[in-house]
Design brief:
Length: 191
């Protein structure tokens, strides 16, 4: 008996079984999600992400500049010297954090460090950096703002821990007081 010849259908099936299947573009788009600042981000499964792309930071920080909010005149002869730059926070900002970020002391500190007129304002999950430009941010302002956010984050965490400790001490004192009152009440005998 001779070798059996395969027809065109069997050859196509054999070739297709050895090829790796890649998701169709529609499948990729369906797994993508809209991010908080209106951009479209593909949903990359955790198992396929490179280890160095895993977010290692916690707390409040800025993810980057929202380039779609920059003035359209940038890169032209009409480019303004200073303008509003919007950056995106890593998460929602608490009222306590917002008050500290927008405090006059932060504006004064930035002025002392050479960034006169620059001010910070929280707008939902965005930080509006007024009276600045990209060159100032690259030249050191971004580092100063990151330092401010780290200090605020540490301050808020320390204050929360202090309040938690205070509540715990109060609860322990209240439990001890209630136990003393109960013990005293139990000494009463109606005999």
């Amino acid at each position: 008996m001779g070798e059996s010849e395969s027809g065109p259908h069997e050859a196509a099936r054999d070739a297709s079984s050895t090829q790796q299947k890649t998701p169709a573009p529609d499948e990729d788009a369906s797994r993508a999600q809209w991010d908080d600042d209106g951009g479209f981000e593909p949903d990359i499964p955790r198992s396929t992400r490179a280890p160095d792309t895993e977010p290692a930071r916690s707390g409040l920080f800025l993810r980057g500049v929202l380039d779609s909010a920059l003035p359209h005149e940038l890169g032209t002869d009409d480019e303004p010297e200073r303008y509003l730059v919007t950056a995106v926070f890593s998460r929602q900002v608490s009222a306590e954090e917002r008050a500290l970020i927008e405090a006059p002391s932060v504006t004064a500190m930035l002025a002392e460090r050479g960034y006169q007129g620059v001010s910070l304002k929280v707008a939902d999950r965005r930080l509006e950096i007024a009276h600045t430009n990209l060159a100032m941010l690259v030249g050191g302002l971004a580092t100063e703002i990151a330092r401010v956010l780290r200090e605020i984050d540490q301050q808020v965490v320390a204050e929360r821990e202090r309040r938690d400790d205070e509540r715990l001490r109060w609860g322990q004192a209240e439990a001890a007081r209630a136990a003393r009152v109960k013990a005293e009440a139990e000494r009463v005998r109606f005999e």
